[in-house]
Design goal:
It is built from two helices and no strands. It is mainly α. The chain has one domain. The mean pLDDT is 90.
Length: 69
Amino acid sequence: MTEVANQDIIQVRLDNLISEHRDLDDIIDRLTQDTPINQLQLQRLKKRKLMLKDEIIKLRAHILPDIIA
């Protein structure tokens, strides 16, 4: 597989993760507006959101590695 194709695959994965992260944000916002709040569900969603954020950071670092000047 070429480097360009690999970058394209990573970019698609990154876009999907960003979309899912945004969707979780909306779900968490709606869930916290409901009364009573399901704390277990909220905790799981927040944990998933953090995992997505970590993966997004890793993929972004892979696409745009730090350049030390």
